[in-house]
Amino acid sequence: MTDKKTKGKAEIVLTRPAGDNHQVVRIVGGQGSYRKKPCATCPWRRDAEIGAFPAEAYRHSAHTAYDMAKEAFSCHESGATKPAACAGFLLKGSVHNLGVRMKLHMGTLDMSKVSDDGLDLYDSYREMAIANGVDPDEEVLKPCRD
Question: Which InterPro entries does this chain map to (predicted)?
Answer without folding.
Answer: DUF6283
